[in-house]
Amino acid sequence: MARFLRGTTLVVVSALLMACSNGGGTAAPAASTGGASPAASASGAADSGGTGANAGATISVTSLWGGAEQENFQKVLDAFTAKTGIKTKYESIRTQYDTVLQTRISGGNPPDVSIMPGIGFLRRFAADGSIKKIKDLGIDPASIAGNYAPGILEIGKVGEDQYGIMVKFNSKSTFWYRPQKLKDAGVDVPKDWDALKDVISKLKAKGDKPLGLGAKDSWTLTDWFESIYVRQAGPEAYDKLFSKDGDWNDASVQTAIKTMLEVLNDDNVVGGINGALGAAFTDGIGQVFSASPKADMYYEGGFVGGIITGQVNKSAKLGTDADWFDFPSINGNSGVTIGGDVIAALTDKPGVKEFMQYMTTPESGEVWAKTGAIISPIKSVSPDVYPNEQTKREAAQVANATAVRFDGSDLLPSGSPDLGALLQSALKGQDLAPLLQTFQTKVKSAWDAEAS
Amino acid sequence: MSVAPAPAVVPRPPDRLRSEGRNWSTLLFLGPAAVLLIVFLVYPTIYTIILSFNRGRRGEFSSWVGLKNYQDLLGNDPDFLDLSHFPPSGALFNNVLWIIFYVGFVLFLGLVVAVMATRVRYESIIKAIVFVPMAVAATALGIIWLFVYSPDPNIGLVNSILGVAHVGPISFLGDTAWVNAALIAVGVWGSVGFATVILSAAIKAIPTEIMEAARTDGANERQIFTRIIVPMVSLPMSVLAVTLIVNVIKLFDLIFVMTGGGPGSASRVVAFTMYQESFPSGQFGKGAAVAVVMLIILVPLMIFNLRRFRTAAVT
Amino acid sequence: MTRAGAFAGDIVRPKPRTTSERLVRAINKTPIHIALALIGLIWLAPTVGLLVTSFRPRGDIQSTGWWETIFTLRFTLENYEQVLTAQGGMLGAFVNSVLISVPSTILPLVLASGAAYAFSWLHFPLRDTLFLIVVALLMVPVQLAFIPLLNLFRPLGWTQGFLAIWLAHTAYALPFGIFLLRNFFITLPKDLIEAARIDGSSNIGIFRNIVVPLSVPAIAAYGIFQFLWVWNDLLMSLVFVQTGSNFPMTRQVQNLLGQYGTEWHLLAAGAFVLMAVPLIVFFSLQRYFVQGLLAGSVK
Fold this sequence. Notes:
The structure holds 3 protein chains of 3 kinds. Mean pLDDT of chain A is about 85; it is low at about 1-50. Chain A is built from 20 helices and 12 strands. Chain A has helices at about 1-20, 35-45, 65-85, 95-105, 120-130, 140-145, 180-185, 195-205, 220-230, 235-240, 250-265, 270-275, 280-290, 305-310, 350-360, 360-370, 390-400, 410, 420-425, 430-450, and strands at about 60-65, 85-90, 115, 155-160, 160, 165-170, 175, 210, 295-300, 325, 335-345, 405. In chain A, helix 2 packs parallel to helix 3 (about 65-85), helix 3 (about 65-85) packs antiparallel against helix 16 and helix 19 runs antiparallel to helix 20. In chain A, strand 1, helix 3 and strand 2 form a beta-alpha-beta unit. Chain B is an all-alpha fold. Residues about 15-20 of chain B have low confidence and may be disordered. Chain C is mainly α. Chain C has 2 domains: about 20-75, no CATH class; about 90-295, MetI-like (MetI-like fold), CATH 1.10.3720.10. Chain C starts with 18 loop residues before the first helix and ends with a helix. At the B-C interface, helix 1, helix 3, helix 4, helix 5 and helix 7 of B face helix 1, helix 2, helix 5, helix 6 and helix 7 of C.
C-alpha cells in the first residue's frame, strides 16, 4: 500500500507539473481548429506577401459556423493572412455560443475577434465593457462609412459608438419555389399577398401541398412574422416594435399573426401544422427540394439555395429546380428584411486592428461573396462576383430595396422571451391576446434589465 | 487476535510533544481537502449570496440593488413563478412537478422491480439492465431519448408505435402540453436502477424469520408486500427520497441537452433558470438570486440529513 | 445491521419436488416474468435503438426505423469513422476526457481518504461539527461556483489548461467522498488501530499500513463513481475548459448537435463513443459499484 500511495503521489505531482507547464491542451492538436492551423501556417510561410505592422502575430477568431460555412469563412481568413502576414486561429463554437463567450471573457481568455450571436448580445457585451470600440482600435468610423449603404453600419452601433461591423448577410425576403410546379399550375410568380393566396389555392387544386414548413426551428416563424409585419405595418412601426418602446399588445401585431395564419394552416402545409412543428428547418427545405419532394414552395432566406445544392439534393440545379421570388408585397408595401452577422473585437492585441480593417475592404467582401454563401454588405463589391444568378439577384434585391430592416428577433435583448415559441403557440390555434400580454411583460423587463 | 505484549519499560514521549505531533499530521490529512472545500464551495457560496443583491454585470459587483432581484424573480417573472392562473406555472413549479412525479415513480418502480427481481433466477441481469442508464452521461441519455421521442415516425420509436394505432405523431419535446411529462419520464428511466439496487439490498436484509412466520400464518404476497416489506424498507426509502429530491433541485443536464428549457420556457427548472439568467441573459445578479433560492430550499433537506447522521457521527 | 444469515430473497417456500409442482410454480410466476420482460425491453430498447442506428447508413436512418434493420441488415462503419476523424472529431476529445478524468479521480481519492481518516480516527476540536459541515456542503450546486471562480482564476490563467477543471472536480467530489469513506473507516476494527498506536506508529503510518489496505473495496468503489461522474460531466467542462482543443467528449458531442437539423448518423455514433468507456467500466466492475452504493446508505 505504501507503494500505492507513493505511486499516486507521483502521478498527481507529474499531472500538476504537466498542467502548469503548457497553457494549451496536450491532446491531439487543435481538434476544433482543424483546417485552420495548417492553412494559416501555410500562408504564414508564404510570408513574403505580408507587409506592414504586426506581420507574424496571431489572432484568434471565433464564430458559430461549422461545416461548409466554416470552410467559406476560412477562405477569407486565408486571404487576410496572405495579405498581411498575420496568422489567424479559427475556433468554431457550435453550441452555447453566448455562454462560452461569456465564460472566456470572465476567465480572462477572450477570443481576439468574435462573431456576435445577435445584436442584443452586441449591446450587452458592449455595456459590460467586453468589446472594444472601433475607434479605440484606431479605426475612424467615418472613414469606413462610405463602404456601406446607409443603415448597414448603424446596426453595429450601440448608442453613439461603433462596436460591431456587419460582415455578411442574406436576404430574408426570398420565397423559394419549384418553377415547374408553378408552370404546371399555370400561375405566375405572385407579386402581392392576394396573388400568393391565389397561387396556393391553384396548387392545391392540382392536388399538391403548396408549402413546406420547418416550424420546429421556431426562428423560421419569426421570419414569416417579420416579413409580414414590415410590409403591413410599415418600416417605422417595425423599428418601434423591436425597440424598447415596442408594444406587443398593439393591434398591428395580432393582425400580422392572423395574416400569417391565413397561409400557414393545416390545408396548405405539408404534414399539417402538427407535422410542421416536428420538422426542423432543413427538413422543411427537404420537403420541397429533396429527391422525393412533398411540397412546392418554401419561404426562408437566401442561404436556402446553398443548402439545397450542398446538403439536401446535390443534383438539384438552381434556376430550373429551385428559384426564388420576392416575398409578396402587402397593401403595396414591400421592404426587405435581412439577417446578418457582425464581428467585434474583444482585445486590441497586435493584428486585431488590421483584421477589423480588412473586413471592411471590398477584397474581403469579394473573397467571401465568390463562395456564393453570403451577400457582402460592402457597397463596392461588384455583383458579378456572385457565382450564380440567384445570389446576384439577392444582392440586387437588397441594394435596390426601398427599405431594409434587420431581422427583428436578433435585435431583441439577450434574455428576451422566445418569439418563435409564441408563434408556434399561435400556429396551434392558441388565444393570441394572453400570449402577447405575457410576451410584452417579459420583453419589457428584458429591455429594462439591459439598460440597468 | 493477539496483540504483541507492550514492552516493559519504554520511555513515552512527553504528552506535549505527542499532541503536537498529532496536530501536525492532522493538518496534513485535513489541510488540502479543507483548502479546496473553502476555495471551491464556501467562497463561491458567500460570493453568490452577496452577488444576489447586486446587478452583477459580467458577474462582478457592479452595482448594489438590494432586494430587487428577489422581487423581480418572485413577483415579476412568469418564467420563474406564475401564480396568475391555476395550476401555476414557471420553473419553480416545474421542480415541484418533478419532486412529485419523478421521486414518486422512481421509488415506486424501484421497489416493485426490486421485489419482483428477488423472485426470479435472472435477478442480477435485470438489475444490471435497469442500472445501465446510471453509468451513462446525461448528454448521452438526452441523445438516446431525443431519438426515441422524434416526431418523425420513421425515426422515433414512440411515434412509430403510436402510428400503428393511427395516433399522432406527437412532438413530445416541442409541445408544451407534453414536454414536462416526457422529460420526467426520461429522468425516471435514468434513476430507477439506482433505487432498485439500493432497495433490493434493503429487502434482502429483511430477516427471513419474519417472512417465514408471515407465510406460515397464511399471508399472501400482497400482504407480505404491504405489511412487511414496505415498512422495513421505509428507512432506506426515506434516504433515497431525500437524495432524489436533492437531485431534482440540482437538475440541469437533462433539460439543457434535451430542450434548453423550451419550448419557450415551458420545461425550465430552477437550476436551469440560474444558468439562463447568468449566461445567456447576462443578469448575473438575478442568477445569483435563483441560486440562493435553491440553497434556501435545500436547507430543510440538509437539516434532515444532518439529523440522521448526527446519530451515526456520534458512534 | 442485518447482514448475517440467509436473505429474505431466498424463496422461503420448499423447493418444488414434482413436475406438477414446478409447473404450478412457473405459472404463478408468469405475470412476474411478463412484467420483468416488459421492463427489460423498456430499459434496453432506447439504447439498443441508438446503437443499431449508429451503424446504419445515413439514408436508411432518415427513411426507415431502426427496427426495420432486421429486414435489410445494411450496416456501415462510416459514421464512426466520420465522428472520430472529422474536424473537431471525437478522437482528440477522447484523449481529453482521459486527461481530465484520471487526475480528477486520483486526486479526490487521495484527499478524501486522508480527510475521512482524520474524521474517523483522529481527534481534534470541533471534529463532529466540521464533519457535519462537510456533509452539508454536499448540497452546494456546482453552478454557484462558476462566476466567482472564473473571476478568481482569471489572473492565474488556470483555465487555459486543465488545472482549473482538475481542482474543480476534486473539490466538488470531496463532500461525498469524505462522507462515504468516513462512514466506512469507522467500521474498521478499533483494536487494530489502538494496537498500532501503542506500538508507537504515527498517524501517517496507521493510515498507510492499516486503514488504506483494509479499505480498498470502498476506495475502489468511490474511485469508480468519481471516474464515471467526471467522464460524463458536461457542465463543469462547459465552464472551466476554455480552450477548444481541450474539450472532453461530452463537449464535443454537443458540437455534433450542430446548427441546422439533426444529423442522427453522427449523433448516434458520437453518443456511443461517449458511452463506450463508462459502459465497459460499469460492466466489468459492477460488483464494486454496487458495493460502493451500499456502503454509505444501508447500515
